[in-house]
Amino acid sequence: MAAPKAGFIGLGLIGGSIAKAIRKYYPDHELIAFDKSRETLALAVQEGTIDTACSSIDENFRGCSYIFLCAPVSCNTAYLSQLKGVIGENCILTDVGSVKASIHEEVIALGLEECFIGGHPMAGSEKNGFTNSKAHLIENSYYILTPSAKVSGEKVASYRDFVSSLKAIPVILDYKKHDHITGTISHLPHIIASSLVNFVRDTDTKDELMKALAAGGFKDITRIASSSPVMWQQICLKNSKNISHILGKYIKTLEQAKKAVESCDENALYSLFESSRDYRDSMPNSSAGPIKKQFAVYCDIIDEAGGIATIATILASNNINIKNIGIIHNREFEEGVLRIEFYDEGSSAKAAELLQKYRYIVYET
After folding, report:
1. How far apart are CA 137 and CA 160, in angstroms?
2. Strands 295-299 and 337-342: what pairing?
């Protein structure tokens, strides 16, 4: 019996990460891919992520158990008509876009509902492209599934189990509800981050003091502004109605904040910060949404040669992997501190305990 085959249209950050996850957990699967970049396909073959690089959407895609549409949102709908002739009745056709209405509407128009289950892995990075893809990118991330009206319950259950086997967390939603939710928790934050960065740029002093002094909190909340402009342009165009409505409501909350500041309303200001703190603190740490949780500790460090190396050695000798490390200066701390970022919450907690044991003063985030 032939090994199951999975096809990819587009092999960027998300497509590449899913392909690598399938290769990791299902090494016997045959993986094929089409991408406009020949360099990307060549690298994917060279690394062993895919078996066959396709120059077009052709007969190679016939017989696939899964076909993943991983191109930009506007392109995915165009590729559907090309796939219609090669999709078998047992194939599960899916996508990874963060806007679902447009592709569901095209699926309905083409009569492909019986095989289509929309997908949105809520994982990502400010970096993009296949070179930044990783098998573990979708691990412990919510992976939203939006089944079409005519797809069978068996296919939905099968695909849900497949997503779980890649270590992601499947959540089934109606596609219209999905677009409203992601418009609020994903699309709005990207617009806010980008607008805030541009606001600082446009109002900075001539000697760019704002840019020079921006650190800590500012960089944390604007990190996602470094994401792909093309991708977010397309997302806003495809989910414009939801985003416009959400922006209107958000602007009203900013107006309320402005009014509280102008009137020096102590109660309103305190309530603003208290309620937001309490609600944010109630969010489960285990959830991995579109803005990835960072696991980091901050510790005071002796200002002497070899100080960072000493800490790195302590952690390495206890089998704790460091994701990133560096000294930061911001107003949260009286002096510069060492920020150490880890891959998971367990490593962060273990590192904090270990460094405290060695008499370091540790601040957890």
Report:
1. 18
2. antiparallel
Give the dihedral of Cα atoms 232, 284, 343, 191; nearest 10 deg. Answer: 20
- The first and second tokens of residue 346, run together, are 């367990």
Q: Are residues 154 and 17 in the same domain?
A: yes
The one-letter amino acid code at 234 reads Q
CA–CA separation, 64 vs 6, rounded Å?
Answer: 5
What stretches of the chain adopt beta strand conformation (E)? 5-9, 30-34, 52-54, 66-69, 92-95, 117-121, 142-147, 169-172, 295-299, 322-328, 337-342, 362-364
Domain assignment present for residue 286? The answer is no
Residue 54 has pLDDT above 80, yes or no: yes
Residue 304, domain extent: 295-364
Q: Looking at the domain assignment, is residue 289 inside a domain? A: no
Closest Cα partner for 66 from 108, 116, 24, 103?
Answer: 116
**Residue entry with tokens 């000798």:** 317
Our count of domains for the chain comes to: 3
* φ, ψ of residue 306 in degrees (nearest 5): 85, 0
pTM: 0.74
pLDDT 10s digits, 75-121: 888 899 899 889 988 999 999 988 999 999 999 999 999 999 999 99
